[in-house]
Write a structure and sequence with these properties.
243 residues; alpha+beta; L,D-transpeptidase catalytic domain-like; nine-stranded mixed beta sheet; two-stranded antiparallel ribbon; 4 helices; 37% helix; elongated
């Protein structure tokens, strides 16, 4: 309290004590009311961000712990599989020829030549065209290279081709008698031929540019250099695997 003009009273612009106390109390109440919402607004976004991150860190740890639990039967199954693999390897070893042999892939028109269980040459070849042809009456042909296991039945140098009936029909020519000279042609099979039976052979061709394509009437054609190596490597009786 101060004295103004000899009177006791409240100075101009001053706030009465009881009114000031009310303001302080009111301010405290509002602070209490605003504290919780403020903290909520401040920390909830933080929690929304940090919670997934914590989950990312915790889940792999749980996974690792679960992965450490060993299946009691797993070791036994693994041993059984290892035994099966060894048995298959021994079976493949028994079935694989120790001598030279030839593998022909008719899908990709490729060959692989093996000797002493090692591949010594590979390259392109030509196999059956898969085309059908009809002649007079019931005559029908389907030009497909047969698949399966075969053996080299014979080896011929400078082979002569005896043209079958379909060779004449294909060209629109009359079919001559079986012993007619027009049946025989030299030079069209290359320098070498290996017979496989039933008229099928491994031989050369005049049309080297078509090697690698399915264009034959069932025989297996090779380039000159490849044919020479195959002819010199495979003895009579050697296996030929065609698939």
């Amino acid at each position: 309290m101060t004295e103004i003009d000899g009177q006791t009273g409240t100075p101009t612009g001053a706030v009465p004590e009881n009114q000031g106390n009310r303001w302080v109390n009111t301010l405290k109440v509002w602070i209490k009311r605003l504290t919780v919402p403020f903290l909520y607004i401040l920390f909830v976004p933080f929690l929304l961000i940090i919670t997934p991150a914590l989950a990312e860190l915790l889940i792999p740890a749980n996974k690792v712990r679960h992965a450490d639990v060993v299946d009691p039967g797993a070791e036994k199954r693994i041993k059984n599989l290892q035994t099966q693999v060894k048995n298959l390897e021994r079976r493949i070893e028994r079935l694989t020829p120790g001598n030279a042999y030839l593998v022909v892939n008719t899908t990709e028109n490729r060959f692989m030549l093996y000797k002493n269980r090692q591949m010594i040459r590979e390259g392109l070849c030509s196999t059956g065209s898969m085309i059908s042809l009809e002649g007079e009456g019931d005559q029908k042909w389907f030009f497909r290279t047969p698949r399966g296991d075969y053996r080299v039945q014979g080896k011929i140098e400078n082979p002569v081709w005896r043209r079958p009936d379909w060779a004449f029909i294909e060209e629109g020519l009359p079919v001559p008698p079986g012993d007619h000279p027009s049946r025989y042609e030299r030079g069209v099979l290359g320098d070498y031929a290996l017979t496989l039976g039933d008229g099928y052979m491994i031989h050369g061709t005049l049309y080297q540019r078509f090697i690698g394509l399915p264009v034959t009437h069932g025989c297996i054609r090779m380039l000159d250099d490849d044919l020479k190596v195959v002819f010199e490597t495979l003895p009579a009786g050697a296996k030929v695997f065609i698939y």
